[in-house]
Amino acid sequence: MENDYQITAYINTNPIYRNFVTNLPYNIKLKTRARALRKAGVLSEIIFWLQVHKGKFWNIDFDRQRIIGNYIVDFYVKTLGLVVEIDGSCHNTKEEYDQQREDYLCSLQLRVYRIPDLRIKHDLHNVMLELEHYIIKEFGNKMT
């Protein structure tokens, strides 16, 4: 398997192993919507983006508003097969939809990491530390 033992980054000297998921489905009809979402930008997503774009977060490459199947995810790390979702108040009434979406993404062998919108706005430092710990736990082991 091509992903085995390839180190894609280091977080505090911890090697982070590649978990690239190939052949993800892509609905081209969502391309215009994804572009519009990138341009509009939700405040918490912009704050998060400023922390991770251009390799600022341990030299890990994040994509914003990425199309996967019939969904547009907030952030995607290709080398890790990691989806990062920022959950605002609109998600409070969409639990069933969010669960179906997450189940679909997981069925593609992706991992989904959710962050509440308010935590981005009010506890950013700890949010980023928790994301570091999650990535080390999930991708820092060759047996992942």
Order of helices and strands: EEHHEEEHEHH
Report Rg: 15 Å
The biggest sheet, with number of strands, parallel, antiparallel or mixed sense and barrel status, is: 4 strands, mixed
CATH homologous superfamily name? Answer: VSR Endonuclease
Average per-residue pLDDT, rounded, comes to 92
Tell me the count of domains: 1
Q: Level of helix content?
A: 25-40%
Broad structural category: alpha+beta
Number of discrete helical segments: 5
Low-confidence stretches: none
CATH class: Alpha Beta
CATH topology: Endonuclease, Chain A
Q: Give the CATH architecture.
A: 3-Layer(aba) Sandwich
> Taking strands numbered 1, 2, ... along the chain, how are they ordered across the largest sheet?
3-4-5-6
Overall strand count: 6
CA(first)-CA(last) distance: 13 Å
InterPro entries: DUF559, Endonuclease_DUF559_bact, Restrct_endonuc-II-like
GO molecular function: endonuclease activity
Organism: Flavobacterium micromati
Protein name: Very-short-patch-repair endonuclease
Task: Describe this protein's structure.
The chain is α+β, with helices and mostly antiparallel strands and 144 residues long. The chain has a single domain, classed as VSR Endonuclease (Endonuclease, Chain A, 3-Layer(aba) Sandwich). 38% of the residues lie in helices and 24% in strands. It has 5 helices and 6 strands. Strands 3-4-5-6 form a 4-stranded mixed β-sheet, sandwiched between helices. Strands 1-2 form a two-stranded antiparallel ribbon. A hairpin with a 2-residue loop joins strand 3 and strand 4. The longest helix has 16 residues. It starts with 6 loop residues before the first strand and ends in a 5-residue tail after the last helix.
